[in-house]
Amino acid sequence: MGWRHWQRARRAPPDGDSSAALLLDRRGTSYANSEGFGPNTNIVIGRRWRIHSHDERTPLLVRSNRAGNPFLTGLERMLKSRWQVVALICSLVVTPTIANAQAADSTKAQAQDFVRDVLRALLGPDWNLFAAGGATKSERFLLQQAVNPSDGQRALQSATGFDIGGGAGVDILLRTGFRASYTYASSTLNFRTNNGDGSKALNIDDVGTLKSQTLALELIHYMLPWRAAINPYGTLGIQGTWWLLHEKSPLVTGIGAATPFSVSPLFSFGVQFKATHKFSARLEATLSGGRNPFTGNRSFRSFAGPVIDEPTSVNRTDFRLAAVYHFGKSKMPSATPTVTHEHE
Asked: Where are the beta strands (DSSP E) in the chain?
């Protein structure tokens, strides 16, 4: 601050002291010592700085001496505390921003560049192999009238069967991946009375074995980053299914039928339990549909009676438990540096 910023004046202190001092700057801040100021001293701050006393108005010498003024000490503390509050607020805002930026750089949640983030992930180490097994259940295939109409109706349906399979997957983003799988399923065909009265008169067990082979491609999305210990997930995909029939009774036959094939969507949801960075387990349920293998010109046939209902598609539910092996090394999260602020 230049010499022209200061205004000088001098007077004798009213209480007899030899000197008094006051320093005023253009911002209106005053610095003074406690010497030479009586109770009647009045300080007026304006564009031109003067010190006036109710007793007399004489020039004073302005000099920079702040020692011993309690008013000035409190003002300085207030200003310093204000800057500390501002610095604290800045640190609270800046620290999460830096942490989020580093997290985004370490593992991306969304693809920003398709070639770099997706295609290169297919050649990376985040692949896995899995084997699965469980239970399968299908809806009713046919509803037929009994040979004697007074006996009522019966339905051709499958009992709860089993399925086994395996596949491979790759995690391309933080919560997203792909998987391809093959599943073999087998279940027993039974006739069940469908009169609504609890009767079992038309029941016939084990008239055949219905088998299927399925190839599926799915997009899998995790609720949490895929390395989480307990992680719910869901999938959406497409599958192709081939049906095979092994007859055990003349009531059903596959003679003259082509191999029924259908393409249909499938949905899955489950939970992944990650024991180590190499091994994990999945418990999931799969819902899928497809063309009914007992409908069409060259389909499987039933001779149990006139057909009442022949749905064009049937739904199937699978419950599976899978063991997963993960390739590659575990990625340790990068430590976030601590942001500090120095205060003068």
From this structure: 22-24, 30-32, 41-44, 50-53, 127-138, 142-145, 153-158, 161-171, 176-193, 204-222, 230-247, 252-253, 261-274, 279-291, 301-302, 307-309, 313-326
